[in-house]
Fold:
Amino acid sequence: MGVVVLDFGSQYTLLIARRLRELGAFSVVLPGTASLQEILAYDPQAVVLSGGPASVLDPDAPRPDPGLLSSGLPLLGICYGMQLLAHHFGGRVARKAGEYGKAVLARHEGPLFRGLPGEIQVWMSHSDAVIEPPPGWRVMAGTEDCPIAAIASPNGRAFGVQFHPEVVHTPQGKQILANFLDLAGVERDWTPARMLDSLLDRVRCRAAGKRVLLGVSGGVDSSALALLLSRAGVDHLAIFVDHGLLRQGEREEVEEALRPLGVNLQVVDARRRFLAALKGVTDPEEKRRRIGHEFIEVFREASREFGPFQVLAQGTLYPDVIESAGGTGAANIKSHHNVGGLPTELGFELLEPFRYLFKDEVRELARLLGLPDEIRLRHPFPGPGLAVRIPGGVTEERLEVLRRADAVFIGALKEHGLYDRVWQAFCVLLPLRSVGVAGDERRYGYVIALRAVTSVDGMTADWARLPQGFLDEVARRITRRVPEVGRVVYDITSKPPATIEWE
Structure:
């Protein structure tokens, strides 16, 4: 079938699965503690053990089914996964001072590193380390601070690497994963077209005999899902909720884009109720929870009016899940309204076909489904909308100021041919005012922060090096066209340590 990736709580777990798919190997993610029976149900040709925040020295640390480790299946342990293999087979793991960031494999050997001569840059993120390999296992690589950075079992069926080959900061990591697939004999015939076929089968199975209510935002994820449901022949209704937190002209753009595609679209005006729910709320997590609650209430009312519906479909992506602590042992970074913001008693079965996909994978599916590029290539926009781009309280006045400033920024990016060169760009209205001068008079205006990042999957991102002259022009346009704004700044923080959105 392909590869099962066992998730032990690493923020990078699905990057492993994504890299394997890029190499043509079908992959699925299961909890690290999945039983051998659950793993074998996928008929895997190999298993990867992910990293994670735990220590194998902790008796309560998550561990794989012992039957897996004696099954003879090819295994690759990454970071914590390597330590699990070493510990289980009789090696020694100890707490160390920690090693984080870039490192260099000063030496490496063996088939896992085939085709990679010379020194190799890798990305480390660990506090424990293997200080003695299991009996009979060979040390295959080392760095200055980590002498045992890769190990191989005597029979060449199990490997461990202390670094993270799945991240872009390990430039040759994809080749290392490709070598493992070759050593394991994994079939590499997985394509976007096959992924689409698999999703169509899954949706038909889950929605058989049921009516589906789809929350659509006009972005690529929910729009692609609408087309997927239509292609699968599922009885559904797409609900677009105008919650009053949209960008300038967005409601009209969504209607004009989706109706010609044959999407069965119903627009619900819920601006007053969302703004009422957010009145006086400043905590970002509480904002997301309230927005998630109101969305579900709107969907319940729509189900009573147009339904009944048994299933609620959402275009949730894996970054939403992992940041909302949806993975085994993962830390909660922020609760996305469509994940951590959902009420306990939902009232619907939840259908999320894209839950384990990245944005670029969904964009490729959208291309196959025939979604126009003006929607397919739109920058991501958060479900809570502008509420999470206004730190502090949300008011009609602040929303209007932010809408106008954001329209200036995005319009300038498109005008200068820069829009498609960045992953995401937007404005943030800061919860403070700044003294300025306008027409020889003192002005006390809002502060707008410009945010633009480059990324591949949204899990990591770098701030976009936009031309200085362009930023100067945007700042002058905003302060001229939005007189309530007195100062414009540019955010040059990458992810990590920041997230892309400010809340």
